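Go through this pair.

…
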Amino acid sequence: MLELLTLILFLVVIGLMIWGPIERAIIGGVGVVLMIIIGIITPYEAFELVDWNILAILVGLWIVSSYLINAKMPEALISAVLKRTKSLNAVIFALIFSAGIVTMFVDNVLVVLLFCPIMLTICKTLKVDPLLPTVMTGLAANFMGVGLMLGDITPQMLHTIAGMEFMDFVVFHGKPGSFFVLITTFIIMLFIYSKRILKFDYKGDFRSMLTSIAEISSENRKLLKVSLFFFIIIIVLMALRKVLEVPLGAIAFSGALVMACVIELLHRTGKLKEAPTFAEVLGGLEWRAVLYYAFLFVLVGCIEKAGYIRAIAEGLQPFLLNLQVGVPLLYWVSASVASVVQFDAYNLTMFRTLADLGLTTGLNVWPYFWSVAWAATLASNATIVSAPALYVTWTLIEKEGYKLTTKAFHSITVKFALITLVINFIITFLWSQL
């Protein structure tokens, strides 16, 4: 009875978080309190269910990105893009494509924090509707995270549980690896959407308008050099996490604090006069997003504790003996689950189940590992409760003063996720038969 009540409460809370009648962090917090009241978890368990490592990554990278934005990083990137493109449509396309490529190397939330402000700045300056290009940037940032072993939590799970190494994401057992599968899906998707994305018929001189906002003072250039230096150091250290044996959250957060300390000292000594104070940086962070995902981790943990994720994994086992049946079934079940919950808990449980299945039956479970990883990643683009990158995209658009509706936002994301999943499923099924 308690498990059923947990499921009902979870579905109601998730539905309200997607709908957003009031602030979503408040809805999530109330949901967690109700989970504690009905007895599915204790307050101590709620605290333990929060993935503090991921939250440390988010906060650390937000601090880094805040300094980069204050150092006019968006303006510098706009200037660089303008030198290499001749039309507004090419600028829009280049930024969306770049967001998808960069996310293979760094956390997708950081990609959103760097690229979405650029897109919003362009749209606001030229007075064009920012919704589609900005949301597409967020979707691209969440797309290629499993392309290599650096970009997301999922490939690191594959490394830990399945033993996959860096080059397995490029070439796997003599077949094209995850990089080629996802980049093919990404290019096909951008081609399909190109007519919708690249439809800005701007009649004014967009280059001169954007060039004027892309001007950077000498003081900002100094801050940008310092910020980029620390940004590169942090990214390199995150890439070397396995060698260092330090959690990503510790690297990102401690690196951000060291960066803040150095910039604060340089600011106080007058060497970086235009640098923001640390108080200003903290004041600009999206703390409601931190709370939102802390509560979401607890809610997903409640479902996992109630046994529903394990039940899904065990229920699928008999169907996995046949690849032609198992791959489609596991792919679409994974997509369905990942479209409405933050999918780390599901992936972790499913990967462990698959590893056990391979050991006990001798079955070739590699196609299943990949189908879960690809389906869950792409399906997370459906709703803002699935991917932190999309929620941050939402908050950035609202922060610029644009009014968003759940219907308008999800009319883009759900359609994008469905089309992407169909395209990738065809590729995945053919790939599994090689």
Remarks:
- The two ends are 46 Å apart (CA to CA).
- Strands lie at 171-172, 175-176.
- The chain has one domain: 6-35+37-432.
- The longest strand covers residues 171-172.
